[in-house]
Amino acid sequence: xxxxxxxxxxxxxxxxxxxxxxxxxxxxxxxxxxxxxxxxxxxxxxxxxxxxxxxxxxxxxxxxxxxxxxxxxxxxxxxxxxxxxxxxxxxxxxxxxxxxxxxxxxxxxxxxxxxxxxxxxxxxxxxxxxxxxxxxxxxxxxxxxxxxxxxxxxxxxxxxxxxxxxxxxxxxxxxxxxxxxxxxxxxxxxxxxxxxxxxxxxxxxxxxxxxxxxxxxxxxxxxxxxxxxxxxxxxxxxxxxxxxxxxxxxxxxxxxxxxxxxxxxxxxxxxxxxxxxxxxxxxxxxxxxxxxxxxxxxxxxxxxxxxxxxxxxxxxxxxxx
Length: 321
Known about the structure:
Layout: H1 7-10, H2 27-45, E1 57-62, H3 68-79, E2 83-88, H4 100-108, E3 113-117, H5 121-130, E4 135-139, H6 145-159, E5 166-170, H7 176-187, E6 191-195, H8 204-215, E7 220-224, H9 227-230, E8 236-239, H10 251-257, H11 265-268, E9 276-279, H12 291-294, H13 301-320
Parallel strand pairs: 1-2, 1-3, 3-4, 5-6, 5-8, 6-7, 8-9
Helix pairs in contact: 2-6, 2-13, 3-13, 4-5, 6-7, 6-13, 7-8
């Protein structure tokens, strides 16, 4: 647990850094962010005001709509004493052809940090290349590191540790959640099995990267097709929607491909008796998860959603204060 007098000097090596993927950070740095998130959550529960970002401004660029990302970042920067500016791609010149490089350099003169939620990971990398202020990846089609930072915080809260915890992710293995969960689990010494049908499995290069990271952290990262086999002895079971934003036209096709991959009471009963169920939300009840599971005693999805606020406050504090 972080003490009041540790905050200012422990984050010195994170100040000014970008947060593009979890793979850019060490295990110790992720643990620092999780400890800071725990501290900030505790302070908020006690009603204690903590404003290390007083006078700071975060620009929030959205090329993809959002509930949790927008509200958690906007509320978070406000609670830290700063201001958040919502920047829709329809309202700024980047949506009318201005280059990312020009946008990065212009906004660097106005802001203290930028969070961007967009499609291409390359766009986020280019923004970071030309900006002189911290860039936070709020989501791309490839990675969702802010969500996984909150997920790690949640697992730590409900299981008491991260190292050695077995998580089974079931569903679309080729999306940003599966990719970021593999990196996060590898760094923190967890066992993660991504369970998906052929054609919907993770990017092999990201699997290889996660497995390489896992070698030096006592972690295990693997990909399987059989949910019933993978879920045995699981501490945490995780799923996501079958058709992510932009894939709506594939919904019917994906419902056929993912038949048998729904997380329901029967499947969850094969895990440990104290298994926790997680979902990054929004959820489609009776598709990827049954109502009985997501609304049942094993579900921690709303604790997980709240932790987006605390984890991102920790991230902004570390990078921008």
